[in-house]
């Protein structure tokens, strides 16, 4: 394909991806009330658990409308992800070799489910995090929470845990690229587990050990799964490299 044909193909793929996101955002607009009801449920839990006045507030006239638009966009982005991910692949894969296609598809079709699983785990620990953070306020004080700030907090928490679940895929990718070996991965297992425990302890209240371990165990399992894949890859690479004798000649 010429440069002009590539640009036409890119415009076509971008248009289809944008159309998918737009249709998803329309669906997100219709679902935004249900999503927002689920997101603010932890605020109601504060009232029951801490016996304090806790409310979501909208400081500006347009705050509620702006928030509804943001929820619609992010829901649309998630709902339409199969469409725009396919458009990315359809544009990139013709220029890749067979092995590069295998690595690309393997990476994305592993990373995306893991990221969504991590977001689901973030949704699970969200009520505990909200309860912990608001518990530092004195009992006699009310909690008036800005709607936009609260939505940003929820979004960042879920994305952070989603990325944490995808990190083992990046470890495997670095191993396949020859940057790190399986030996170096397993050598750092104590540090990795310590970092995972610290991360899950921050993401969940210290008193809720069940939630902490429910979040930590799959992350540890994913780390060792990444090590197992790296071991298999290193062995396969070692079999391809011919042995070299003392005098530098191939045996």
Describe the structure.
The chain is mainly alpha-helical. It contains 9 helices and 2 strands, in the order H-H-E-H-H-H-E-H-H-H-H. Strands 1-2 form a two-stranded parallel ribbon. Helix 1 (3-39) runs antiparallel to helix 4 (81-92) and helix 6 packs parallel to helix 9. The chain starts with a helix and ends in an 11-residue tail after the last helix. The model has no long low-confidence stretch (mean pLDDT 80).
List keywords for this structure.
mainly alpha, two-stranded parallel sheet, single chain, 3% strand, 251 residues
Bulk shape:
flat
Biggest sheet features: 2 strands, parallel
* CA-CA gap between termini: 45 Å
Secondary-structure element pattern, one letter each: HHEHHHEHHHH
Structural class, please?
A: mainly alpha
What's the rounded overall pLDDT mean? 80
Uncertain runs = none
* Rg estimate, integer Å: 24 Å
> How is the largest sheet built, in terms of strand order?
1-2
State the total count of DSSP E strands.
Answer: 2
Helix content: over 70%
Taken as a percent bin, the fraction of beta residues is under 5%
Compose a concise summary of this entry:
The protein is mostly helical. It has helices at 3-39, 41-50, 63-79, 81-92, 98-134, 147-176, 182-187, 189-203, 209-240, and strands at residues 54-57, 143-146. The protein is built from nine helices and two strands; from the N terminus they run ααβαααβαααα.
